[in-house]
Amino acid sequence: MKKSILNLGNALNRAEQKLIHGGISSSFNPCPCSNSYTVDWVDSKGEVCSYPTTLANSTFPGSRCSGRVKNDVCCLEH
């Protein structure tokens, strides 16, 4: 059993990885900054906001991005 767990096989090449991940590049961002947002609450750091994800056919319908308002734009916190 231990040997079979440790032997995961060969690493996937880039084409195989794209096939599994749907070809989405690592730089793809489903939550870019938005000026169309809802303020959910305010805390000591400022306004916490949310807005719909940019994924047209999201795996999670109705999913939202959450971030903070800066200069009248809602962006993810990093």
Task: Provide an overview of this structure.
The chain contains 2 helices and 4 strands; from the N terminus they run ααββββ. Helices cover 17% and strands 29% of the residues. The termini are far apart. The chain has one domain. A hairpin with a 2-residue loop joins strand 3 (64-70) and strand 4. The model has no long low-confidence stretch (mean pLDDT 78). The chain has a 4-stranded antiparallel sheet with strand order 1-2-3-4, with no helix packed on it. 6% of the residues are buried. The chain is α+β, with helices and mostly antiparallel strands.
Entry summary:
By secondary structure, this protein is α+β, with helices and mostly antiparallel strands. 17% of the residues lie in helices and 29% in strands. Strands 1-2-3-4 form a four-stranded antiparallel beta sheet, with no helix packed on it.
Main attributes of the structure:
single chain, 78 residues, alpha+beta, four-stranded antiparallel β-sheet, 29% strand
Order of H and E elements: HHEEEE
How many individual domains?
A: 1
The biggest beta sheet is recorded as:
4 strands, antiparallel
Distance linking N and C termini: 41 Å
Give the helix proportion (percent range): 10-25%
Strand line-up across the major sheet: 1-2-3-4
CA radius of gyration: 19 Å
Q: Tell me the fraction of residues in β-strands, as a range.
A: 25-35%
Class computed from helices, strands and strand pairing: alpha+beta
